[in-house]
Each structure stands twice: as structure tokens, then as C-alpha cells.
From TrEMBL, chain A:
Taxonomic lineage from the root: Bacteria, Pseudomonadati, Pseudomonadota, Alphaproteobacteria, Sphingomonadales
Name of the featured protein: Acyl-CoA dehydrogenase
The keyword Flavoprotein is assigned to this record: yes
Similarity comment text for this entry: Belongs to the acyl-CoA dehydrogenase family.
Domain Acyl-CoA dehydrogenase/oxidase N-terminal: 7-120
TrEMBL record, chain B:
Record-stated family: Belongs to the acyl-CoA dehydrogenase family.
Origin: domain of life: Bacteria
Domain Acyl-CoA dehydrogenase/oxidase N-terminal: 4-126
Domain Acyl-CoA dehydrogenase/oxidase C-terminal: 235-382
Example of a GO MF term: flavin adenine dinucleotide binding
Keywords: FAD, Flavoprotein, Oxidoreductase
Gene Ontology cellular component terms for the protein in this record: plasma membrane
UniProt protein name: Acyl-CoA dehydrogenase
Source organism of the structure: Qipengyuania marisflavi
Pfam families per UniProt: Acyl-CoA_dh_1 (PF00441), Acyl-CoA_dh_M (PF02770), Acyl-CoA_dh_N (PF02771)
Acyl-CoA oxidase/dehydrogenase middle domain boundaries: 130-223
Keyword Nucleotidyltransferase among UniProt keywords: no
Cofactor: FAD
Length: 379, 387
């Protein structure tokens, strides 16, 4: 398969780009909700529009009412989300939770997927425990209780946790904290008793929660996939989410870079456009190179995942780490090359820096993923 | 799709039958590379067998037309052949500046007669080519070159000097930039082809910091070049030169895969056993970059094959690929420790690590420096002012 978009994907890219630039623009969404102290951090109206565009259920199988598309396509939408810093529950709901639900029972899929596809439901994923992404260790426990389970523990960095109609929770049903096995995924509805959210606003104005489970009673239907056999589904979710986050990061990087290169062509100092200075030209050219490479790694990872290749896991970590480097560089150079106005709230470049920072942490930062590349390579 | 899968099966079977085991082992050094040419010597029967099998199948230049010695493969078929060769670690049957640099220029600018004659020779490995571009006073500012061809009716008489001519002392013919109009900087250069055995041509190897001499100085002293031996129009050789440079940069970038785009952490672990934690972190970061660059190489070639992608993209590939390769060798030296310092011991294959490390320092100079690459990206891709 060639490593560029085919005709259908190019068409999707065109419409997603147009849609997001019009409807998902920074003033219309990010600044709008931020300046109103929105408790969700995104607009439900836009989420309905995502549904009308066919985005919400793009990864859902056709048998379940979705479009049955792949991660290359989801990445196309995410790149535009990144470029416009569009706040939405797309990555958590339509990529991560949808990937988990694909492994759910007929009942679970029937209960949750129609709301997602219609843009009525929002899902969150509760994986992290503590300040860093370390899904190898899961302490949150679900004890068998009658026909169901009782869930106890705490999850952190649950994006849109307080807004979600359902949370996909990774919990331990057997074994020790660091065991590979013994993991079970649960679909926990928003109204579950004894689940409490401490909502926090993050640096990029998105909303996350520290979510506590104090003997939350779940019936057996809440299990997604196999009891004790959830690690495989969790890994599948993580691959999809990491590649999705990488695609969004490529958009953030491109958006910041384009803005910066435009600025170099407008701003005059010493009687010249600052883009005439070779010191800035070389840095901009280096940045371009890094962003291009990050994009290639991301498309490659998405193609491998869609093809069911065993190399997808390694490439997902390569993409997440490489995008983090490139996007980090893009936003730092962006602020620096904008000079003083780059530090103002009025100017958008700083928003890219904030979004990048949050995206870097989500599902593992570049250090975590570089370490993973070493481990998967055998050293 | 099924046609391509059938082709993949066919290629696998052909490789199984024709690629000797010995030709599936990593290249140990220059002695394992077959360059062809009048004076070519095979270093083993396996090398000869592999070359002849590929030559007869058109697989020295798989995507060139059959009329010119290629196999006439489509882009998708050529990619499959590349993937299958790579998966068994097959060596290149023929390495050649004719294939990588002159060939593409002839395909674009050559006359039908030139294509038939020169391309077939290249495909069959009969003539080894070298490139006459740089001069002592014209490095990054290549277009300032002074080697001059005086018009003598049916031929030119060429005088001047080229430098950094790779393997000039082993080459049969040269493709050479010669000034034919001193009053016009860009439109006063002609792209000439001539035999290195022509009277007045001499070469002198340059000893490099690696202790090897892959480059030469090349002198022209009243060299007669027949008028029909030019590519493109007279005085418009700069267009050919620039086009060819794109291919040279693509070649140096290592975009095609192979060792240049693989990770090194696992190899180093096997080699040295224990890795310092900070070095391990650096290796991990390197492997991220190398594997990401490998995807970039694949994307770049896929896009080239269908005419997508920015025409100046080879400059980006060359910049990123050569900087990466320098980093690779810095890390290999660090991992190798004092053993890697040995200059001529048998255990190190005659100082392979140290000499290889030093050789890579030329990567970001030859074919256009990294700084020139960044200039080109700034100007042609980012459209920055005054660049």
C-alpha cells in the first residue's frame, strides 16, 4: 500500500479540512468555550455536527451502524482537529472507546454505539493512575460480587470524565499490580453510584477528572471483552489512541509551523522581512523536515494498524515519540519566532503550545515511547 | 491487487532460485560492492552469479523500460521487488552512479539514440561513470564553475579541473559540467559525456581523514569532446545538472531503505552486551528518528513514483538522512569504546568503525551541504523571502 492518501482519503481530507476550518476554528470553539468557563471544555453542538459529517462513528463497524473506516481515516480527521485546536471528545469517544467497544458484547455495542454515532453520547477512558502514563501497572481493582463486580480505586487524567455518559475503565480483576494478565475493561455508566469526579481544568483549557471509585457496583454486562483477558483489548485501544494522538499532534505541529512561517513573511525588523534572515530560515527549514518525518511515521503506523500488522505496536510508539519531538519543536520555535506577541493571550500561537503540552502527556510522552521502542527492539 | 500479489509470489520464487545465500549477508565493506565497468572484477562466484541473474532479468534497473535494459516494472511492482529483496537482505546486484544519477537525467533529457546506447550500457554494468561537478573554487556555489570547452566546430576542447570526483580513477566515462559561454552564468554550461581514456584526462586520488581515497582531483588538458556527446541543449546544461542533483541527493539520503534507515540499539546490544543507561536513552531516541525516517523514505519514494510531493523534497531527504547517518556513527563509536578506535587491526576489519565514522562526515557536504539544503527548503518549499 503506498504511503499517501488514496482518492477517497484525499476527498475526506478536503472535506475535514474545510469543515474544521469553518466550524472548529479557534475563535468559534476553543476561545469561545474557554472564555465562558465551560464545564465540558467543548461544544455539544459541534459534536452533533461531527455526527452529521460521519466522523463520530467512522471507526465503528458497518454492522453496528458505523462507517467501518480505518485509522488512516480517523487520523485525517484528527490532523484537522489538531490544526484548529478544536476541542471535542473525538479521540476519547470515537477512537479509544469505540476501539474497546468493538470487542464488547452485542448488548454493550447496542447500548452505547448508537448514541456515539448520533453525536448524543460522549465517552471517556480511565487508564492512568498517577501523574504519568504507565498502563503496565494497574491497581484499580474490581472484585467479583454476586453476578457483578465492585470497583475500587482512582483514575487520573480522565479527559472529559465529568462530561462522559460512559467511562471505559481498565481495572484489575486478579493478580498483582504489575501483572500483564488479570485486567478487565468495564463500561461504567455516568450514573453509577459511588463514582465521584474531581474536575480540573488543564493548561490547554480542556477538562479532565480525578475519578474515584468507592465500591462502585457493576453488573456483569458492564464487562467489555473477557474477564481477566482485557489486556489485549487495552493494548489495541492504546495503539489506536496513540496513533490518533500522534495524528492530532501532526496537525498541531503543522498549524503552529504554518502560522510561524506566515509571520516570518510579514514581520519587518531592521528594514527587512525577518524571514530574509538565514538564522531563521534554517530553523524553519529544519522544523519543516521534522514535521514531514513525523507525519510519515504517523501514516505508516496507522496503515500498519489497519492492516493488523504485528509491527503496528512498535510504529505506534515511534510515531507518538517522533510527533512529540516535532510538535514540541514547532510550538517552541513558534513562540520564539513570534517574539513578544507570541507571549500574549490575544495571539493564537501560545494556544498551540498549551495544546501540545497536554497532547504530549496523553497516552505516554516521548520519553515513555522512546523507552518502549528500546524494549520492543530488545535492548 | 491480486495481480500484485501474484507478482510478489513470482518475485519470491525468483529470488529463492537466483539470489545466492552469500549475497543475502550484510555488505562488509567496499570489497562487497560491485560497481561494474570495463575493469570490473567479481570478488566471488556468488557475486557474479547474482549480478548476471539480475542483469538478464532487467533487475539492475527494475523500473527502466525493457528497451534500455530494465525490467519495465510499474512503481508498485518495483516497490514489491524492493521489499522482497530487503526482507531476505539481498545485496544490490550493481551499484552505479549511472543508475542513480546519470540514468534519470538521460531518461528525461536524452535523445532516443543516447538512451538506447548509454542506458543499456549502464543497465548491463558495462560502463562505470563518474561525476564532474565541483571545482576547487566552486563548491556550494557550483554554478560559478570555470572548466571551459572551446568550440572547435565539430568538437570542444576542454580545459580545467574538477574535484571530489568520486572513483574517477576507476571510472570509464564521466558526465561533466563544462562552461561553453563565459558571458552567461546559468545559461552558459553544457552537460557533456566523455571517455576517461581520452587524451588529456588525468586523475589523482585525494587522501581523506578516513585514510581512504574515494574522491579524486580530475584534470582536463586539451581534451577533445565530440559535439554529439552532450545531454540537453548546448548552454542549458544547468537544467540537466539540477535535475540530476535531485537524484544525487535522493541517493545520498538513503531514502531507499537498507542499513541507513534501520534502528541500531538492538545491534549494539548484541555487540557490546551492556549499554550505559544514558547511551541507551540516546540510542532509543535515535531509533525513533531512524524508524520514523524510514517511513519518510517510503512515503517519499511512493510520492515520487506518482509525481506527488514537492519537487524540492529530495533536499529535505538529503538533509535529514545525512544528519541521521552522522549521528548513527557517532553512537556506534561511543558504543564501540576503545575497540572502535583501532585503525588497522584484523579484529576490526581494518578499522571499519573508525573509518566509516569519519567517512560519514562527508555525507552532509557532498552533493550539497546541509546548509545549502536548508537554503533550498527555505526558498523553494517554505517560500521565504530573499532566500
Amino acid at each position: 500500500m503506498p504511503l499517501y492518501h488514496d482518492d477517497d482519503q484525499a476527498m475526506l481530507a478536503d472535506s475535514a479540512r474545510q469543515f474544521m476550518a469553518d466550524e472548529g476554528a479557534i475563535t468559534k470553539q476553543l476561545r469561545h468555550w474557554r472564555d465562558r468557563d465551560c464545564k465540558d471544555g467543548f461544544g455539544h453542538g459541534l459534536w452533533k455536527q461531527f455526527a452529521e459529517m460521519g466522523f463520530t462513528g467512522m471507526l465503528v463497524a458497518e454492522n453496528d451502524g458505523g462507517l467501518g473506516m480505518g485509522h488512516v481515516e480517523a487520523g485525517i480527521v484528527l490532523e484537522e482537529i489538531g490544526r484548529n485546536l478544536t476541542p471535542s471528545p473525538f479521540l476519547t469517544s470515537s477512537v479509544l472507546a469505540a476501539t474497546a467497544l468493538a470487542h464488547g458484547s452485542d448488548d454493550a455495542r447496542g447500548r452505547w454505539l448508537p448514541g456515539l454515532i448520533a453525536g448524543d453520547s460522549v465517552f471517556a477512558v480511565a487508564i492512568d493512575e498517577g501523574g504519568k502514563h504507565r498502563p503496565e501497572r494497574i491497581k484499580t481493582r474490581a472484585q467479583k460480587s454476586g453476578n457483578g463486580f465492585r470497583l475500587s480505586g482512582q483514575k487520573d487524567f480522565v479527559l472529559q470524565g465529568a462530561s462522559a455518559d460512559m467511562l471505559v475503565v481498565a481495572a484489575r480483576t486478579s493478580g498483582d499490580d504489575n501483572d500483564e494478565g488479570g485486567i478487565t475493561l468495564f463500561a461504567v455508566p455516568r450514573d453509577a453510584a459511588n463514582m465521584t469526579h474531581e474536575a480540573v481544568r488543564l493548561v490547554d483549557s480542556s477538562m479532565a477528572t480525578h475519578t474515584k471509585f468507592a465500591d462502585v457496583e457493576l453488573d456483569g454486562d458492564a464487562v467489555i471483552g473477557e474477564v481477566d483477558g482485557g489486556r489485549a483489548v487495552l493494548n489495541q485501544m492504546l495503539m489506536a489512541g496513540r496513533i490518533g494522538a500522534a495524528a492530532e499532534g501532526v496537525g498541531v505541529a503543522s498549524g503552529a509551523m504554518d502560522m510561524t512561517v506566515d509571520y516570518l513573511k510579514q514581520r519587518k525588523q531592521f528594514g527587512k522581512l525577518i524571514g530574509e534572515f538565514q538564522a531563521l530560515q534554517h530553523r524553519a527549514a529544519h522544523l519543516y523536515s521534522e514535521v514531514e518525518i513525523a507525519r510519515a511515521a504517523t501514516i505508516k503506523a496507522a496503515q500498519l494498524l489497519d492492516a493488523g500488522s504485528e509491527k503496528a505496536d512498535l510504529m505506534a510508539s515511534v510515531a507518538k515519540a517522533k510527533v512529540a519531538q516535532a510538535a514540541g519543536l514547532a510550538v517552541r520555535e513558534g513562540v520564539q519566532m513570534h517574539g513578544g506577541i507570541g507571549m500574549t493571550d490575544e495571539y493564537d500561537i501560545g494556544l498551540f503550545m498549551k495544546r501540545d503540552r497536554a497532547l504530549q502527556e496523553f497516552l505516554g510522552d516521548q520519553y515513555y515511547h522512546a523507552g518502549r521502542v528500546a524494549e520492543l527492539s530488545g535492548y | 491487487m491480486s495481480d500484485l500479489e501474484a507478482f510478489r509470489t513470482e518475485v519470491r520464487d525468483w529470488l529463492a532460485a537466483n539470489c545466492p545465500e552469500e549475497m543475502r549477508k550484510p555488505v562488509r565493506g567496499e570489497e562487497d560492492v560491485f560497481w561494474g565497468g570495463r575493469r570490473a572484477v567479481f570478488n566471488s562466484d556468488a557475486q557474479k552469479q547474482w549480478f548476471l541473474a539480475c542483469r538478464d532479468k532487467g533487475y539492475t534497473v527494475p523500473d527502466w523500460p525493457r528497451d534500455y535494459g530494465g525490467a519495465g516494472l510499474s512503481a508498485a511492482q518495483a516497490k514489491i521487488l524492493r521489499q522482497e529483496m530487503s526482507s531476505i537482505g539481498a545485496r544490490l546486484p550493481l551499484s552505479s552512479f549511472g543508475i542513480w544519477m546519470l540514468g534519470p537525467a538521460l531518461l528525461k533529457f536524452g535523445t532516443e539514440e543516447q538512451k538506447k546506447h548509454y542506458l543499456t550500457q549502464i543497465a548491463r554494468g558495462e560502463i562505470r561513470w563518474c561525476q564532474g561537478y565541483s571545482e576547487p573554487g566552486s563548491g556550494s556555489d557550483l554554478v560559478s564553475m570555470q572548466t571551459f570547452g572551446a568550440d572547435e566546430g565539430d568538437h570542444w576542447v576542454v580545459n580545467g579541473q574538477k574535484i571530489w570526483t568520486s572513483y574517477a580513477d576507476e571510472a570509464d566515462w564521466i558526465f561533466c559540467l563544462v562552461r561553453t559561454d563565459k558571458s552567461n552564468k546559468y545559461q552558459g554550461i553544457t552537460f557533456m559525456l566523455f571517455d576517461m581514456e581520452t587524451a588529456g584526462v588525468s586523475t589523482k586520488p585525494i587522501l581523506l581523514i578516513s585514510g581512504n581515497s574515494p574522491f579524486c582531483e580530475t584534470f582536463f588538458d586539451d581534451v577533445k569532446v565530440p559535439k554529439e556527446q552532450h545531454v540537453g541543449e548546448i548552454n542549458r546544461g544547468w537544467d540537466v545538472a539540477k535535475y540530476l542533483l535531485g537524484h544525487e541527493r535522493e541517493m545520498i539520503s538513503g531514502a531507499g531503505g537498507g542499513d541507513r534507515t534501520a534502528g541500531i540499539g538492538a545491534v549494539i546490544k548484541r555487540m557490546v552486551g551492556e549499554i550505559d543507561p544514558v547511551l541507551r536513552a540516546q540510542l532509543a531516541q535515535f531509533d525513533v528518528d531512524a524508524l520514523a525516517y524510514s517511513a519518510m523514505g517510503e512515503k517519499f519514494l511512493d510520492e515520487v513514483n506518482v509525481g506527488k510531493g514537492h519537487p524540492a523534497q529530495p533536499n529535505m531527504m538529503k538533509y535529514a538522512g545525512t544528519e541521521l547517518n552522522k549521528r548513527r556513527h557517532e553512537l556506534m563509536m561511543a558504543a564501540g569504546g576503545s575497540r572502535a578506535l583501532e585503525w588497522d587491526s584484523a579484529e576490526t576489519g581494518g578499522g571499519k568503525a573508525a573509518r566509516g565514522w569519519l567517512r560519514t562526515k562527508a555525507n552532509s557536504i557532498e552533493g550539497g551541504t546541509s546548509e545549502v539544503m536548508l537554503n533550498v527548503i527555505a526558498k523553494r518549499i517554505l517560500d521565504l523571502p530573499g532566500a
